[in-house]
Amino acid sequence: MKNILLPLFLCLFLSTSVLAQFAKDPILNLQNEDKKLLNWGYYLGFNQYDFQFEYQNDIGQDILVDTSFGFNVGLIGELRINDFLDLRFEPGLLYTQRLLGFPGFTSEQDALREVRSTYIRFPLLLKVSAKRFGNWKPFITGGLYTSLNLGAKEDSLDDNSSGEFRMKQNVYGYELGFGIDIYTEYFKFSPSIRGVFALTDELVPDNDPNSPWTGNINAMRTRGIFINFTFE
């Protein structure tokens, strides 16, 4: 949580600072921006990914996950439905890194597994906006995504006994979030916070069904938080 609070505070501070410029009787910027049938843009941001484990047996010792910040970059294609609804396609590239700590080992070489993932994501989202207030407009968004994990090593013949942690390449899930559209003189700037939750099991079990690394894992799913900054 401490790692998440800093970027959240930064995002809120930037949003508040920009909104303060439009507090009193603003001149409306980009008045026709939301009337176009199709709209295009791009986003930059960062993420913090975690894993959620389901165990076959409760042995009292969970796998530890040490998370770190990654980055997101992508494009936006938006189809206007009406004044309050937009359908958005947001393909992008995401990099993240996690360190897993497995219990029951005395050797650090056996206990730790570094998981580096590069995802190509294809989210299809519905954006639900409130009425525009001056030069800003709050919204919520949600939808489904599919992603391709380029660092999955799914087809590798080696497993954890050789130091190789394997994951499935294709991941499916959903994301939910909220944000604010801020209309500047030249473009629309939209900071948002997203929660991302995988629906499919991503673990490729070790060849040994009694493996001390994966033998007790019933399912492993990604969950994470994004902070994106969109420019349209």
TrEMBL record:
Sorted UniProt keywords: Signal
Record-given protein name: Outer membrane protein with beta-barrel domain
Organism lineage string: Bacteria, Pseudomonadati, Bacteroidota, Flavobacteriia, Flavobacteriales
Superkingdom assignment: Bacteria
Signal peptide: 1-20
Domain Outer membrane protein beta-barrel per the UniProt entry, residue ranges: 31-202
